[in-house]
Write a structure and sequence with these properties.
The complex is a heterodimer of chains A (about 260) and B (about 325).
Chain A (H helix, E strand, L loop, with lengths): L1 H19 L2 H16 L3 H8 L9 H35 L2 H5 L5 H8 L6 H18 L4 H31 L6 H9 L11 H10 L7 H7 L5 H5 L1 H22 L5
Chain B lengths: L2 E14 L4 H9 L2 E15 L4 E5 L6 H9 L6 E6 L8 H4 L3 E5 L11 H12 L3 H15 L14 H13 L5 E5 L7 H16 L3 E5 L3 H7 L2 E6 L2 E7 H5 L5 E8 L11 E6 L4 E7 L5 H11 L2 E8 L2 H14 L1
Parallel strand pairs in B: 3-7, 3-8, 5-6, 6-7
Antiparallel strand pairs in B: 1-2, 1-4, 8-9, 10-12, 10-13, 11-12
Classes of the chains: A mainly alpha (about 260), B alpha/beta (about 325).
Chain lengths: ~260, ~325
């Protein structure tokens, strides 16, 4: 693990240096990512400006959900978005052998070498949105912070799992850039208060594909509205991540021709 | 023996696809399975310190064998042992012992100087800083790229990049290095540099397995040649043995003073008539010696120029490929 951390830090430096090689591109894409992501709660703003609301949730409270959602999502993308794209391009160009030549588990190597600094803008936008909305809503207390951190980690593992599944699918569904759109729409259910969805969808978003953990649950925790069922949902979150990793590794085994 | 493979097999399952709209629709519902034997019961052993050339036409199964030897692909059957490891099964430990250069797949990171890619490998392989620096200095001196490695990879010429690929593959001091078409697309000088480097590293004890379509690579580097065709081994032996595979023959290019009606010498055949006065003959040395041939020739024809050559490699290789196809 220590060796991996060392490698990861080295690769982050290399990735940043690589991104800096095209300075204008880096500045523009970071700026664009910040602006586009900051526009993400636009629908919510429109809804509340029109005098409507999500039942039981104030404007800034919904923004808090979305700030957390954006922050979790960008942090995960910073680390794992590159795994998806480099898996895809390795498979399509037939260069996955290069990955298999390294004395590391393929997934570790890909995570280490595909840090994507361009996504940093999303993290910045997430931090801004999160802190601004938090300054309006306030925090329910020290326990709420602890609860938030647990759920934030849960949400992070759900997205990690989703990325792993997407990357795994790219082994069979070569070169399909639509993959991310499907997962984006699945994640939509974490962006809004779960109370607006029918109970069946709420159940799925809590225990099957626990996307509610990406924004809604941690925000509830910070506001002191956490319920027992939300803590229970941390377990499927971790399972979801493990499942994603398992599927990805399974795909690599298939690529290596085990039993094929 | 550093490499031992015994009755190695690899089969792939693909699906038959017809052409046209009707076949495409049909294939959506039912696909016909086709099993392809890419590698068919191949056995060989390679001793430590050898340079072995793996030859074969496109699609013969060379790359599949290299992938299995590198641990990137599980064999369907047979035994495989490289440097004491079962490559695919013990992959993460095994690949520390090997290096690989693929002429068509770069391991360097495109936007940054090679030296940064090297330092990434240093972290990946856990190479000690002192060892790394010494090794890097040695390799860059041998390949004469001390300045090149500080420029971004994307601005390097193909030759310079290829040299850096070799450094990337050999920094961790592998016992055995697999080269898949390492000289493809290089100019004469770059090719010579790379070959020189391979020879020098081989003298220091590195074993090389080389696939190539460049017969000069084979003649200048490989002490041992294995030819694969249709997944089967069709030749295994030294360069000398390969050259005598079609019999001991020489090629004679002849420029005549006058058009001769016919040259009739035992063991000699006309293989090509390039113009009215120019001929290419094939002389079978098992039937007639070169001395006898020349004296016999001067009796039958007057000539202004003569050159005697070895049977060219491509002719031998072509004959072996074709023989393999019939079998």
């Amino acid at each position: 693990m220590e060796k991996f951390t060392k490698l990861y830090l080295k690769c982050i430096k290399i990735a940043i240096a690589g991104a800096m090689a095209y300075r204008l591109n880096f500045i523009l894409s970071t700026l664009l990512a910040t602006i586009l992501n900051a526009l993400f709660p636009l629908v919510t703003i429109l809804i509340y400006n029109a005098g409507a609301s999500f039942p039981g949730w104030g404007f800034h409270e919904v923004l808090l959900i979305q700030g957390i959602f954006l922050l979790t999502n960008s942090l995960a993308a910073l680390m794992f978005d590159g795994v998806l794209w480099s898996s895809m391009s390795h498979i399509r160009e037939g260069t996955f052998e290069i990955v298999l030549l390294k004395p590391l588990p393929p997934l570790s190597f890909l995570i280490a070498t595909s840090f994507t600094p361009e996504i940093f803008g999303g993290v910045v936008a997430g931090v801004i949105l999160f802190s601004v909305s938090l300054s309006f809503t306030g925090i329910a207390g020290a326990i709420a912070i602890f609860q938030f951190l647990v759920m934030f980690a849960g949400g992070f593992s759900v997205i990690t799992g989703l990325y792993m599944m997407m990357a795994a699918m790219s082994f069979k569904w070569v070169g399909n850039s639509r993959l991310t759109e499907i997962f984006d729409s699945i994640m939509t259910f974490g962006k809004y208060p779960a109370s607006i969805f029918p109970s069946a969808i709420r159940g799925i978003a809590t225990f099957i594909i626990p996307v509610a953990m990406i924004g809604f649950f941690p925000a509830s925790a910070l506001l002191g509205r956490a319920e027992g069922v939300m803590f229970l949902a941390v377990i499927p979150c971790l399972l979801f991540m493990l499942l994603g990793i398992w599927i990805y590794n399974k795909m690599i085994r298939l690529y290596e021709g085990v039993g094929g | 023996m550093i490499i031992k493979i015994n009755k190695l097999e690899k089969t792939f399952t693909t699906y038959k696809r017809g052409s046209g709209f009707k076949a495409a629709l049909k294939s959506l519902i039912r696909r016909e399975k086709v099993i392809i034997k890419a590698v068919d019961e191949i056995s060989f052993e390679i001793p430590h310190g050898e340079i072995c050339g793996l030859l074969g036409p496109n699609g013969a199964g060379k790359s599949t064998i290299i992938k299995m030897l590198c641990g990137a692909l599980f064999p369907t059957g047979g035994e495989i042992n490289v440097a004491g490891f079962n490559p695919a099964k013990e992959r993460t430990r095994y690949v520390k012992e090997i290096g690989a250069v693929f002429g068509q797949k770069s391991q360097l990171i495109w936007d940054i100087p090679p030296v940064d890619s090297f330092s990434m490998n240093k972290a990946i392989y856990g190479i000690e800083t002192a060892v790394f620096n010494e090794r890097l200095a040695e390799l860059t001196a041998l390949l004469d790229v001390a300045e090149v490695i500080n420029k971004p990879t994307r601005v390097l010429s193909l030759g310079e990049r290829m040299k850096c690929e070799f450094i990337m593959a050999m920094l961790h001091n592998p016992k055995i290095v697999f080269l898949d078409e390492p000289t493809i697309g290089l100019d004469v000088i770059a090719k010579a540099n790379i070959r020189d480097f391979i020879t020098k590293m081989n003298k220091k004890g590195t074993t090389f397995i080389l696939t190539t379509h460049d017969l000069e690579d084979v003649e200048l580097l490989a002490g041992r040649i294995i030819i694969i065709n249709h997944g089967k081994k069709v030749f295994d032996g030294s360069l000398e043995a390969l050259k005598s595979e079609l019999g001991r023959k020489k090629i004679v290019e002849l420029k005549l003073l006058m058009a001769a009606e016919k040259i009739d010498i035992k063991g000699v055949s006309v293989s090509e008539r390039t113009s009215r006065l120019e001929l290419i003959l094939e002389v079978d040395m098992d039937i007639i010696s070169i001395g006898e041939f020349v004296s016999e020739l001067s009796k039958q024809a007057e000539f202004t120029d003569i050159s005697i050559k070895e049977l060219p490699m491509d002719k031998i290789i072509t004959a072996i490929y074709k023989k393999g196809s019939k079998a």
